[in-house]
Amino acid sequence: MKTALYNQEGEKTGEVTLPTPVFDVPLNENLVHQVLVVQAARRRQGSAHTKDRSEVSGGGRKPWRQKGTGRARAGSNRSPIWRGGGVTFGPTKDRNYGGRLNDKMRQKALLMILSEKARNNQILMVDGLNIEAPKTKAMAGLFTKLPSHTKSTLFVLPSMDKNMLLSARNIARVKTMQATDLNALDAASAAFLVIPKTAVEVIEKTFVKK
Q1: How far apart are CA 128 and CA 143, in angstroms?
Q2: Distance CA 146, CA 132 (A)
Q3: Parallel, antiparallel, or unpaired for β 192-196 and 12-17?
Q4: Strand pairing of 192-196 and 153-157?
Q5: Cα–Cα distance for residue pair 190/175, rounded to 1 Å
Q6: Which residues of the chain fall short of a pLDDT of 50?
């Protein structure tokens, strides 16, 4: 599969052939859906928490004697049936929302998403990305020259580039990520992926099993 090659000025400089093992994988919607659901669930903050009877204040003594008062027996004012008592079956911060995924499922889903984006012309190949200093203005100027500047865009970097990371973090609709950290959820969430030629080699080496 061939696609257009751009430079940092947003100009077409030629064409590049995309490797088949990365960008020509048949789509399995069920697998992709399963992986996306699990990865999204794993990112849930999970901070909702209610106190059970062991965590609320109070207790320590029996409210009244067992017999002879005419009232129902009670052992603690921390009981869930008491006002101010613990909560029964409420959400707790100990809950794990994530499911299980093996590496083959995760990697296969990523390659399927990359392939689908390539078929829909949502992959922008560039001959290189370089910013000399961490300047938001420089990154914004680079971004506005690309065809994807009106949509959410993920810049896939071949390696750690502190200047790119710092320059892009305050720009709306722009996210940066190293190729080795690429995943199905981030790839699917972005409308466009901007990938330097050198990053394609890293993706193939990382996610395609020989």
Answers
A1: 13
A2: 19
A3: unpaired
A4: parallel
A5: 9
A6: none
Q: In what order do the strands lie in the sheet with 12-17?
A: 12-17, 2-6, 123-126, 192-196, 153-157, 174-178
* Contacting residues for 99 by C-beta, under 8 A, at least 6 apart: 37, 38, 41
Provide the pLDDT for residue 68.
Answer: 95
Do 178 and 152 lie in a common domain?
Answer: yes
Same domain, 126 and 190: yes
Q: Which residues on adjacent β-strands are paired with residue 176?
A: 155
**Which amino acid does the sequence have at 41?**
A
Smallest Cα–Cα separation from 25: which of 153, 205, 191, 204?
204
Q: From CA 105, how far away is CA 22, in angstroms rounded?
A: 15
27 contacts 147 by C-beta, under 8 angstroms: no
Helices (H) and strands (E) in the chain, counts: 7, 6
The residue from 54, 75, 96 where one domain ends is 96
pLDDT at 155: 96
H/E segment holding residue 17: strand 12-17
User: CA–CA separation, 154 vs 121, rounded Å?
Assistant: 14
- Looking at residue 189, what is its pLDDT? 95
pLDDT at 210: 60
